[in-house]
Amino acid sequence: MDRFVWTNGLLEMNETLVIQQRGVRLYDGDEKAKLDVGVSLLSTHRLIWRDAKNHECCIAIPLSQIIFFEEQAAGIGKSAKIVIHLHPVSPSKEPGPYQHSKFSYIKLSFKEHGQIEFYRRLTEEMTQKRWERTPVSQPMPTTTGGSQQAGRTRAVGIVGIERKLEEKRKETDKNISEAFEDLSKLMVKAKEMVELSKSIASKIKEKQGDITEDETIRFKSYLLSMGIANPVTRETHGSGTHYHMQLAKQLGDMLLAPLEERGGMMALTEVYCLVNRARGMELLSPEDLVNACKVFDALKLPLRLRIFDSGVMVVQLQSHSEEEMIASALDNVSEKGSLTSEEFAKLLGLSVLLAKERLLLAEKMGHLCRDDSVEGLRFYPNLFQ
Amino acid sequence: MSFEWPWQYNFPPFFTLQPNVDTRQKQLAAWCSLTLSYCRHRKLYTLDVMEAQESPVFNNKKIERKLSVEAIQVVFEELRKKGNLEWMDKNKTRCLIMWRRPEEWGKLIYQWVSRNGMVNSVFTLYELSNGDDTEGEEFHGLEEWMLLRSLQALQTEGKAEIITMDDGKGVKFF
């Protein structure tokens, strides 16, 4: 909190307002700041906070002071927050509401929501770093540590050890912040990749016919490995049923094509791998996936979650007809005389697990019978008629 | 005369007890008829479950399949329900197999008796099963316990009466 300086609340030259949000309370570290609720403004250069009633009370912090920031989800009786970690205070700092603070981070608590948009804009500004390209009239105080170097003195005894420990701690702090910086850079790159995949997808659509089928398939596989645009996450869609419904809709869109390629049925494990590979970063938990699959029916999507007698779960197309599946199993077995589930899997390009379920289903319906010997389980056409 | 195996005998699934209820019923019916016709061909009257597993009926060496002991017991139990088999011990390891039920045997014997105009005559059991007169008849060589049961069946129908004689048992037909 001691990083804030008093300001008149007016924007400088070259500085533009990005977003403002009412009902924001400041926290000094984990403690509530001695300020009331106010408006938080994000400009290209600064993070500004102004008291809701007393407009004279206005403080700001340069964006260059921010190391990294993170979201803190809302809880029962708790508003969503954005935690902002800051560089150490510079000695040439102008006066602010706090002279000292034991915390190196502040929190913005959003009483009237808007944290998602605010967070997004803050991320944008932090990556674009527009304050570097167009400095405001006065130079912003920065934290390159020349002054620290000057102030360094040789010390012995306990003071010396303490000072050494302190230096070590600062070093660690710096390393951690750098590490996190890399992570946010990665996220930015991920976004670029999503953009790229979008543009490739639209190009494929435009040029349909101009490119060969091979190329289309190759592009498609690239897209799949790059990720889907706008993954539905808990952050954007809350939790519970609503989240699962949104997720189910997205699954419905993305699974149709792979399902058709695979003959209308996929094991849930296979779906899990495919979806998470496509999502890349915002990974799904197995539980969320199952719950999302369970609402396919309620949402009238063309997909179904099916649980076989053995407990194996699969996602199948609604149009996928059981009779057809059984008939094809019988045809294949009759043609070859007899089949194991492995052979059947190879024949259809299915997983062994699914192939076996199909054969068992056909057996249950009385179309096949089994030969269980030391050589393994084989299925024959049911000649006991 | 060699035994003619049914088509199922060379069908590997025949040797695995089918889990599907309908299929299993048909499979068991085929097993029952195979077991009975084989015993009839070989004139077998008693079977041991353990020995049976090694006999050609339940062990097809050509396709390397054999029926498990549990499955054999299921087949035998099925035969028992149909009245073609009786367990000789509580543990169900040995059994009497009746490829013809006592009533059917009785009928055959009575037909022979009346055909030869020997109603109202008395026979010893040995005469019936091993006598020169019955040579060529199907019941020739019938084991005594089986013969006795057939005659008992006739007795309940009122067509014969079993008499105890000095050196064994005899029978009078009416």
Automatic annotation (TrEMBL), chain A:
An example Gene Ontology CC term for this record: ESCRT II complex
Positions of transmembrane segments: none
One annotated GO biological process: protein transport to vacuole involved in ubiquitin-dependent protein catabolic process via the multivesicular body sorting pathway
Compartmental location: Cytoplasm; Endosome
Molecular function GO labels: phosphatidylinositol-3-phosphate binding; ubiquitin binding
Cited PROSITE patterns: GLUE
Span of domain GLUE N-terminal: 1-138
Role noted for this protein: Component of the ESCRT-II complex (endosomal sorting complex required for transport II), which is required for multivesicular body (MVB) formation and sorting of endosomal cargo proteins into MVBs.
Protein name as catalogued: Vacuolar protein-sorting-associated protein 36
Lineage: Eukaryota, Metazoa, Chordata, Craniata, Vertebrata
From TrEMBL, chain B:
Coiled coil: none
Keywords carried by this UniProt record: Cytoplasm, Protein transport, Transport
Location relative to the cell: Cytoplasm
Gene Ontology biological-process entries: macroautophagy; protein transport to vacuole involved in ubiquitin-dependent protein catabolic process via the multivesicular body sorting pathway
MF term (GO), any: protein homodimerization activity
A GO-annotated cellular component: ESCRT II complex
Family assignment from sequence similarity: Belongs to the VPS25 family.
The name this protein goes by in its record: Vacuolar protein-sorting-associated protein 25
Organism: Albula goreensis
